[in-house]
Amino acid sequence: MHGFTQPTFNIGSVMTTTNKLLLAWVDEVARLTKPDRIHWCDGSDEENAALIEQMLESGDLIKLNKDTHPNCFLHRSDPSDVARTEHLTFVCTENEADAGPNNHWMSPADGHAKVDALFDGAMQGRTMYVIPYCMGPIDSPLARCGVEITDSPYVVVNMRLMTRMGQPALARIEREGHFVKGLHSTGDLSPERRMITHFPEELAIKSIGSGYGGNALLGKKCHALRIASWQAREEGWLAEHMLIVGIENPQGEVHYIAAAFPSACGKTNLAMLIPPESHKGWKVWTVGDDICWMRVGEDGRMWAINPEAGFFGVAPGTGAKTNPNALAMLDHDAIFTNVAVTDDMQPWWEGKDKQVPAFDWQGRPYDSKNGPAAHPNSRFTVSAKQCASASPEMDNPTGVPLSAIVFGGRRKELAPLVMQARDWNHGVLMGASVASETTAAATGAVGVVRRDPMAMKPFCGYNFGDYWAHWLSFADRSDKLPQIFHVNWFRQDDDGKFLWPGFGDNLRVLRWVLDRCAGRGDAVETPVGWLPAKGALDTSGLNIDASVMDELLSIDPAAWRDEVTAVREYLESFGDRLPDDLLDELQRVEKRLQSEAA
Ligand code: GTP
Ligand code: SPV
Ligand code: MN
């Protein structure tokens, strides 16, 4: 006997629910996890203030300088809990092949048994928070609701910034009668007792042992990508690891682009870019910086929404030159995780400014011998409303129409600055072939090239073979699909210096992309795709050698033949789930590369 008594519910004044499913699930979870209290989150300012007060007292949050950064707080996570842990992330499907070789698999029975054993009594002495949330504009047919149960007040205050959380979400859940169930506990933070499990057939998530980002804010990667990608396949849409950005030209026309880059490879930066000096009259609108849900509309175009309401962005590298829009939104009402602080308690990270850090991300007096002051995966959480470039379309229930889809990776070599796919199927192959150097966003080695198809390697909730077949199926649904491109901002010279200035100057590349979508923009054909013709990319006002541009905008057929061999080996590892059309497409690229050699 645990001496367990039914906790008192604080429903009543503001929050209550008539949804029997939700009540029964909350009750079932309470019986398993045995919290001292249950709190239904309404998302109000008062609730948020009380939680922050409580975390300041417990030391979970540290107040930052109230003059330079009003309402900003620092959270230092456990030093063993600073990034997503992909080796502890599981997709639990009845049939192993449905999860695919791209996921760690467990049977649902095994998954539940293992994770429930860890949840048994996990919330003793703690408060259990029930967080109803909506991913996407609250009145959008593309939006989907979930409920996260957690014992972490840090998760509650982050979910409030990242999602539409509280009463309106609960009202929608009651109207619709269904929701994604996400159960989370920080447990004892021991990596040995950490598991992030997904049950797509039950629309359920159970995550324990981590308080960090994508492991704990279940609306984000767990729901909006792993579970949603599964739902999207069943329902005929796409849930992707993509930013959404609107590009306004001097004539006042706005065109939208969605772009998939792996974690810490430039989505937030591209979504908020500020045009270079030479680009008077251009403006960039941020619709989303991490996740995109899209479907073909009645007009045949691809329509996209950002299911999130805030940004959980990489801090290091965010500076006045690189991403001024991001820097400006971080001087009030923001939560920082694992950044350093100056002696007057301003948040600090490498690349921010010339100030000197006093304490590092672990709270130790800063000493360069201990490595960077801010953790390389330190992050900020902030409401999207604080972004100066936030698009008014962010709340549009129908979303925005996409002109282009861009894939990309972080590659020192090989991949040119930009190339265009010949058609949709070739574009799907381009996406499926993406490789990128690993970053600090996940635990493990950094800088190792790995395949990261569509930037979804850690996030696709089902077999990649089926996923590519789903992508290919869109070719039959419409003849007005976006054009597909591939970019690489990260080419380096022999000294490890970036060849392309990146950041604001990436607009030059997006302009060529949009020109191509409009049937303009000069291009040359290569075996792997269309590249900008000489002079087609506007480099006015840019101090860059012609020889560097040549290097960025050419391909090395011999290196690409090796690449394509590696791509074939990778794709074939998906066996009979690999769609024939994708292999046919690959074969066409191989043939073109061979005839180049002949
Ligand atoms: P997640 O939030 O992990 O999904 O990452 P993200 O794709 O949004 O990456 P983000 O924009 O935060 O960029 C990650 C790192 O790449 C930061 O340190 C940036 O400064 C750096 N970066 C972004 N864009 C560029 C670029 O165009 N060139 C170079 N050299 N670095 C860039
Ligand atoms: C990523 O790793 O791609 C992120 C951060 O955007 S997390 O929320 O931790 O997934
Ligand atoms: Mn991401």
Looking at how many chains there are and whether they match, the oligomeric state comes to single chain
* Number of helical stretches of at least 4 residues: 16
CATH class of the largest domain: Alpha Beta
Q: Name the helicity range.
A: 25-40%
Per CATH, the architecture of the largest domain is Alpha-Beta Complex
Sheet with the most strands, sense and barrel status: 9 strands, mixed
Give the uncertain stretches in residue-range form: 1-14
> Which class best fits the helix and strand makeup?
alpha/beta
Percent of residues in beta strands: 15-25%
Summed up, the domain count is 3
SSE layout and pairing:
Elements: H1 20-33, E1 37-40, H2 45-58, E2 62-63, E3 73-75, E4 89-92, H3 96-99, E5 104-106, H4 108-119, E6 127-135, E7 144-150, H5 153-162, E8 164-165, H6 167-176, E9 180-185, E10 195-199, E11 204-208, H7 213-216, H8 219-235, E12 238-240, E13 243-248, E14 254-260, H9 267-271, E15 283-288, E16 292-296, E17 302-305, E18 310-314, H10 324-328, E19 335-337, E20 340-341, E21 347-348, E22 379-383, E23 400-408, E24 418-420, H11 424-432, E25 435-437, E26 449-451, H12 464-473, E27 483-487, H13 506-517, E28 523-526, E29 529-532, H14 546-552, H15 557-572, H16 580-597
Helix pairs in contact: 2-5, 11-16, 15-16
